[in-house]
Design brief:
alpha/beta, Single alpha-helices involved in coiled-coils or other helix-helix interfaces, Rossmann fold, 3 domains, 7 strands, 56% helix, binds guanosine-5'-diphosphate, binds magnesium ion
């Protein structure tokens, strides 16, 4: 046997062992699997892909829930409360926290970790913050891959915290089944994303901090938003978005919220939207990969790169149009437009 093939056989076995450890729910294996995915080394990506392929047949059965809202509304605190409630009901909970420093500034994952300390201590929970930098495929790839690993490890509820600034909340909608938008009374509609179409991607909305002095304001804000939603949300879904109030600090207020999240899953499963959306997400991702690889190919090839720079100069001066430039590039990579 040649030494190269025995080496690759050993590598294959190592990945297979890792996959088995993950499927058995061993925490060290899950951690190693996630680290492999997070590796910034391009040469480790084939190993990560191999692992994901082995795990894929065992993934898919969780309820994937995105939790979004502006910093400070209580997402992390709420996730801890929801997570503990879910565990009490017999679920296993994985939390993926998208580290704000990897996308935008502000916030601290360290704060989040301490905020989820009770959940973090549970054997039935696994908390993973996104690496703060250097992800090869970007944050949405990380989220997708990590969901797959967690599902294969037997976590049946996956909560994904995103910081509600910029693109992250709409991109989380592309990887989850249910989007929970957390709001607080008096923070201003615009600030919380009403004008940015966030309401359209939310399946459940909760006004948090409905406790103490904040309770009345939260109840009023909820009523107001309910009235607005009646007129703005489209009717093509079997689901209409409920607006609730809760307090992340009062666990008993979280039951209606959990029920609403569950109900969204059940209703969309019955209507077929659930399966259809997952399919659409996967297929959209497939094309995103095609796009990324084509661009990667163009950017890596020095000759093509130079060719593109020349085209760019021509586009800049207006001597050729964008569509002519696009045609030339496609022709150059062998696609005759
Ligand atoms: N009164 C009150 N404070 C809360 C509630 N939820 C979170 N907080 C506090 O709000 C602050 C921000 O919470 P955090 O979970 O970090 O918000 P995130 O930035 O959305 O993740 C912390 O000081 C929490 O203790 C709540 O329901 N009621
Ligand atoms: Mg947080």
């Amino acid at each position: 046997m040649n030494p190269g093939s025995s080496k690759s056989e050993a590598a294959r076995r190592e990945i297979a062992d890792l996959a088995e450890g993950i499927r058995e729910g061993r925490r060290a294996a899950i951690g190693r699997g996630l680290s492999l995915i997070e590796s910034t080394l391009a040469e480790r990506r084939p190993q990560a892909e191999a692992l994901l392929s082995m795990l894929a047949p065992h993934a898919g059965s969780s309820h994937r829930i995105g939790v979004t809202g502006i910093p400070g509304v209580g997402k992390s605190t709420l996730i801890e409360g929801l997570g503990l409630e879910l565990i009490a009901k017999g679920h296993r909970v994985a939390v993926l926290a998208i580290d704000p420093s990897s996308t935008v500034s502000g916030g601290s994952i360290l704060g989040d970790k301490t905020r989820m300390s009770d959940l973090g201590r549970s054997e039935q929970a696994f908390i993973r913050p996104s690496p703060s930098q250097g992800l090869l495929g970007g944050i949405s790839q990380w989220t997708r891959d990590s969901i797959l690993v967690c599902e294969a490890a037997g976590f049946d509820r996956i909560l994904i915290e995103t910081v509600g600034v910029g693109q992250s909340e709409s991109s989380v909608a592309e990887v989850v089944d249910t989007v929970l938008l957390v709001m607080i009374a008096g923070a201003g509609d615009e600030l919380q994303g009403i004008k940015r179409g966030l309401l359209e991607v939310a399946h459940v909305i909760a006004f948090n901090k409905a406790d103490g002095k904040g309770r009345d304001a939260a109840l009023a804000a909820r009523q107001e938003l309910e009235a607005v939603l009646r007129f703005t949300v489209g009717a093509e879904s079997a689901w209409s978005t409920p607006v609730l109030t809760c307090s992340a600090l009062q666990r008993e207020t979280l039951s209606p919220l959990l029920s609403a999240l569950d109900e969204h899953r059940e209703v969309t499963r019955s209507s077929g939207e659930f399966a259809e959306k997952r399919h659409a997400q996967t297929w959209a991702h497939t094309w995103a990969l095609v796009n990324a690889r084509v661009l990667d190919r163009v950017h890596r090839d020095p000759k093509l790169k130079r060719w593109c720079e020349e085209l760019e100069a021509k586009v800049r001066t207006g001597s050729i149009t964008a569509s002519v430039a696009a045609r030339s590039i496609l022709k150059e990579i062998g696609i005759d437009p």
